């Protein structure tokens, strides 16, 4: 009953969800609630690696970046994820959780660089690893970073914690008639152009046979429910 369904997971936390009801940035109560959810799962003995988005601060494709050089805007987006990662690690520290932030871009005065064997060592030691700065490359997203790092560390699943409770036939925030899938294959999600994750992330997970669970980070207890293998959110599978 208390045995988790997974030993090692890659959790993708929505940057946008960090805003809570604020128009921008990091809402204190929201980050503390996310950390409480993560803490509950860590206590089950699940090895947790986290990628957090940057949508609450800056996206390379946001209207505010219009007219900018795309790669420059994307580097700004990656730096936004570093800020979120530091905030998350600090919020964890405050409740006694040991987390290590590793950045895909060199910024060594602030955070240690991503080195795969070191990340694996931290996970084996029971520390939470937070992968910052996405893939380190412009023209990608943190969803793709989650797929990439998840594959690299041998995670059993990517858990995409976002503002909606699964994958829908259309964006549920725009189409009230959208219906939720309990499960969907990678090929179907890609061919239907479902925008909940980008196609690069879906394709990488499909090729690596790494399933994805999309679920709501806003719903209390949903993360634990997913980790326990309960019926929650949408499973994207090969
Ligand atoms: N078919 C769909 N099913 C579910 N959500 C969808 C779909 N199409 C679009 N969406 C939208 O995708 C959003 C989640 O993806 P998005 O990349 O915007 O957010 P995130 O990953 O949570 O944020 P961040 O990039 O800041 O981490 C949902 O909030 C929803 O509005
Ligand atoms: O590998 C990556 C990851 C992210 N970016 C840039 O950062 C922002 C924020 O990431 P989200 O996944 O949208 O939360 C993204 O819009 C890109 O501009 C990147 O370039 N490369």
Automatic annotation (TrEMBL):
Residues given in the record as ATP binding sites: 12-15, 55, 59, 162, 168, 171
Function of the molecule: Catalyzes the reversible phosphorylation of UMP to UDP.
Location of the protein in the cell: Cytoplasm
Domain of life assignment: Bacteria
Subunit composition and interactions: Homohexamer.
Record: residues binding UMP: 54, 74, 135-142
The family this protein is said to belong to: Belongs to the UMP kinase family.
Database matches in CDD domains: AAK_UMPK-PyrH-Ec
Reactions listed under catalytic activity: UMP + ATP = UDP + ADP
Keyword Nucleotide-binding annotated: yes
Activity regulation (UniProt): Inhibited by UTP.
Keyword Cytoplasm: yes
Annotated EC: 2.7.4.22
Domain Aspartate/glutamate/uridylate kinase: 7-216
Gene: pyrH
One annotated GO molecular function: UMP kinase activity
Protein name in the entry: Uridylate kinase
Pathway note: Pyrimidine metabolism; CTP biosynthesis via de novo pathway; UDP from UMP (UMPK route): step 1/1
Keywords: ATP-binding, Cytoplasm, Kinase, Nucleotide-binding, Pyrimidine biosynthesis, Transferase
